[in-house]
């Protein structure tokens, strides 16, 4: 997969990551995507405190729903926290070996962490 389908070059993004928190959850929702540098996206999410993951998911949910695609993310109760495992499972179920969906998720993670 070409790096040019991403909003920000992963080398530049890697330099901008400040690992303030490192929760070391083993995310793997991008494991079936044909892209070498997925660890950077896991690092970004491992830097988000668990109680803020619902904010990230809400951001992701809104961005995907703005796209004109048939497959949407599931709606969660944003009054409750979402765990790393729940987030990982939802994203893995959404991507389902679809490179385009993986690219969408990676770009939204980039924009959440480093808005352009």
Q: Quick gist of this model?
A:
Helix content is 48%, strand content 0%. By secondary structure, the protein is mostly helical.
What's the total helix number? Answer: 5
Number of strands: 0
Count of all domains: 1
Oligomer: single chain
- The gyration radius over C-alpha positions equals 13 Å
Which regions have little confidence, pLDDT < 50, spanning 5+ residues?
Answer: none
- Major sheet characteristics: none
Structural commentary:
The protein is an all-alpha fold. It has one domain. Helix content is 48%, strand content 0%. The chain is built from 5 helices and no strands. Helix 3 (53-66) crosses helix 5. The longest helix has 15 residues, at 99-113. The radius of gyration is 13 Å and the shape is globular. The mean pLDDT is 81.
Defining traits:
0% strand, 48% helix
Write the layout of secondary structure elements.
Blueprint: H1 10-16, H2 39-46, H3 53-66, H4 84-95, H5 99-113
Helix pairs in contact: 3-5
